[in-house]
Specification:
The complex is a heterodimer of chains A (139) and B (142).
Chain A (H helix, E strand, L loop, with lengths): L1 E2 L6 H22 L5 H10 L5 H19 L11 H17 L4 H10 L3 H23 L1
Helix pairs in contact in A: 2-3, 5-6
Chain B lengths: L2 H22 L5 H8 L4 E2 L2 H22 L19 H17 L3 H10 L1 H21 L4
Classes of the chains: A mainly alpha (139), B mainly alpha (142).
Chain lengths: 139, 142
């Protein structure tokens, strides 16, 4: 294993992470909900009329994304070819709903509240994602 | 301000903070994520630090909630009580891992990228929404 020192950004990663966790705390302390984005999006789609808080949460995400696009510091690019983006999107959509969580719901909130179920899910999806990257580099 | 308005404002503020964290930490940058997942190549450990930052600050809120009878602006909390490690959990995590490993995009960044980089971001978000809808069709309890 070689560390990519040129791209390693420990300070922004750690401080950005603190903010993500704080956002999750704000949500659970104020309204008692879990900041799991796949569950928020799933709830929006399956129960659109009883999802006011989910719309508000996604509204916060979109508002910041708009602001970022208008005054962005770093350009974000997606280099994955379209066909693979579709395959990936389908896998992420089905998988996060079937496994009841994603990076935020299991990886941050679940682990933060000491759920073994979330620790297992996070370990599995991280390992599988690492193997997938390894395979993609070879085929 | 009515409690209902405060309730929605809290959700909006949390979403905005969450997005700032994803963008500032570069969790929303697919290339950065793929660099973290590439452990056998040149490995960028940054996202490990994102998790190390996020888990303790999220734990503060969940620990507070565990000791309270209710959250500040609602009558009940919706923190799941599910604890079983079952087959759907594993299959779901495997599928999600495959998708995350292909594109380096998870659900939060998918929403942000659909706005910031609509050309391909909307395509990913649409495919993800289709996946969510497919699951809802297959699974009767959803």
């Amino acid at each position: 294993m070689l560390i990519d020192t040129a791209h390693f950004t420990p300070l922004t990663a750690l401080s950005g992470g603190l903010l993500i966790g704080l956002a999750a705390s704000v949500l659970v302390v104020s309204i008692g909900k879990v900041a799991g984005i796949s569950s928020v999006l799933g709830g929006l789609m399956t129960h659109p009329t009883t999802s006011a808080w989910r719309w508000a949460f996604v509204g916060g995400l979109v508002a910041v994304a708009w602001g970022w696009q208008a005054y962005r510091g770093v350009a974000l690019t997606i280099e994955t070819p379209s066909i693979w983006l579709v395959v990936a999107g389908l896998c992420v959509g089905v998988g996060t709903r079937y496994g009841a969580g994603c990076t935020s719901g299991h990886g941050v909130c679940g682990i933060a509240r000491g759920s073994l179920r979330s620790v297992v899910a996070t370990a599995v999806f991280m390992l599988v994602a690492m193997v997938t990257v390894w395979l993609r580099h070879r085929f | 301000m009515s409690t209902e308005k405060k309730y929605l404002l809290a959700a909006f503020v949390s979403g905005a903070m969450f997005a700032c964290g994803l963008l500032w930490s570069e969790m929303a940058n697919p290339a950065k994520v793929l660099g973290f997942l590439d452990i056998t190549g040149l490995w960028d450990p940054s996202l490990l630090l994102v998790m190390m930052g996020a888990i303790p600050t999220a734990a503060l809120g969940f620990r507070w909630m565990a000791k309270q009878s209710k959250p500040l602006l609602a009558a009940h909390h919706a923190v799941p009580a599910t604890a079983n490690i079952d087959v759907p959990l594993i299959i779901g995590a495997v599928l999600f891992g495959i998708g995350w490993g292909i594109a380096g995009i998870c659900p939060g960044p998918a929403v942000l990228l659909a706005v910031i980089q609509p050309a391909s971001g909307v395509l990913f978000l649409s495919a993800m929404a289709l996946g969510i809808a497919l699951h809802a069709l297959i699974s009767p309890r959803a």
